[in-house]
């Protein structure tokens, strides 16, 4: 008998490796296909759920393997319908994920790391130290949990996925891409790549790598300012990945993929609420075809940052529109349960 702590998570095996295990156990290889379907398409959390697999074989699987499935520990519901999940991982750590319902879509906002190492000054998650990367399975499980909630609470399917939760996805590149591969695979959730958006602070070399890897999902960049001095002050990553490097990487991305970039941009009082900053954004937006989401700021505890006036945001939108750049004002959802952009901090 293998000790529980020594058992391998069966979802770490490829289908070929699973078939190899069954052959070693004098079992028919097609059993691997059945088990693989239970693990991914049907998202089984327990071997006993595998009802078309014999009891004897299920016991054998239990002896050799475990399924390190996530567990939604607490669920908070906002008055606007948003649902925030505190997700327990197999080792006791916790991340948060969010279901965001709107009239025409239901979006899963998922985390890619426990904590974050990037120290953006306006983000609650940045105040948590980065403990570890999430595995591909843990990312996948967040999507499955939200898909089930969409059907249970809204009687509607999950339509979109955004990697805008805790952590920087490009610093967990291999696992994030493996998760997206399973999410989009017919053997998994069979979701369209165009329904998935990865949001990054703008790590230039990894944006180029994504382009080289011919990814099919969408790219969003948390920009928040297009002047190096200001951006470096609020986003320390800009000191090693300045706007010039980011612009070069995005040019490479567009040349390879021919897909627009979305810029996420918060306008703060006394930080970037002047025409100088707005004009700098317009100039940056002209480097590659792009659109802008002007995001409502969601305060975190210390009050260091404050939402700019409606007039300042309107000034941005008008200037962008005048230059032919699509800009939408995004109202935040789930603020009353700390589920909005920049607020995920494991308060539960």
Key attributes of the depicted protein:
elongated, 33% helix, 14 strands, alpha/beta, 10-stranded mixed beta sheet, TIM Barrel, 348 residues, 2 domains, two-stranded parallel ribbon, DNA polymerase, domain 1
Total helices: the number is 10
Helix-strand sequence: EHHHEEEEEEEHEHEHEHHEHEHE
The assigned CATH architecture of the largest domain is Alpha-Beta Barrel
Order of strands in the sheet with most strands: 3-4-5-6-9-10-11-12-13-14
Low-confidence stretches: none
Strand tally is 14
Radius of gyration: 22 Å
Output mean pLDDT: 92
CATH topology of the largest domain: TIM Barrel
| Ends apart, CA distance between termini | 37 Å
Specify the biggest β-sheet.
10 strands, mixed
Content-based structural category: alpha/beta
> What's the CATH first level of the largest domain?
Alpha Beta
CATH homologous superfamily placement of the largest domain: Aldolase class I
Please give the share of residues in helix: 25-40%
Globally, the shape reads elongated
Strand fraction:
15-25%
């Amino acid at each position: 008998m293998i000790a529980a702590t020594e058992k391998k998570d069966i979802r770490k095996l490829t289908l070929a490796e699973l078939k190899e295990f069954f052959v070693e156990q004098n079992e028919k290889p097609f059993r691997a296909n059945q088990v693989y379907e239970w693990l991914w398409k049907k998202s089984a959390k327990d071997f006993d759920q595998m009802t078309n697999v014999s009891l004897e074989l299920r016991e054998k699987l239990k002896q050799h393997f475990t399924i390190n499935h996530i567990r939604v520990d607490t669920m908070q519901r906002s008055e606007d319908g948003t649902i925030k999940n505190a997700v327990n991982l197999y080792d006791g750590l916790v991340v948060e994920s969010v279901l965001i319902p709107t009239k025409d879509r239901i979006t899963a906002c998922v985390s890619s790391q426990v904590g974050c190492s990037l120290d953006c000054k306006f983000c609650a998650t940045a105040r948590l130290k980065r403990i570890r990367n999430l595995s591909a399975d843990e990312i996948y499980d967040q999507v499955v949990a939200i898909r089930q909630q969409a059907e249970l609470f809204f009687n509607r399917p999950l339509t979109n996925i955004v990697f805008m939760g805790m952590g920087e996805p490009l610093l967990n590149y291999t696992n994030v891409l493996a998760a997206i591969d399973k999410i989009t695979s017919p053997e998994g959730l069979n979701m369209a790549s165009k329904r998935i958006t990865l949001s990054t602070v703008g790590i230039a070399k990894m944006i180029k790598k994504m382009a080289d890897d011919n990814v099919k999902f969408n790219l969003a960049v948390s920009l928040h300012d297009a002047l190096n001095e200001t951006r470096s002050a609020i986003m320390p990553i800009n000191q090693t990945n300045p706007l010039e490097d980011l612009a070069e990487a995005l040019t490479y991305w567009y040349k390879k993929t021919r897909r627009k970039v979305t810029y996420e941009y918060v306008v703060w009082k006394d930080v970037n609420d002047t025409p100088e900053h707005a004009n700098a954004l317009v100039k940056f937006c002209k480097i590659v075809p792009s659109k802008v989401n002007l995001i409502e700021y969601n305060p975190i505890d210390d009050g260091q940052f404050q939402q700019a006036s409606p007039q300042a945001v309107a000034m941005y939108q008008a200037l962008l529109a005048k230059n032919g750049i699509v800009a939408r004002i995004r109202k935040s959802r789930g603020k009353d349960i700390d589920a909005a952009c920049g607020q995920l901090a494991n308060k539960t």
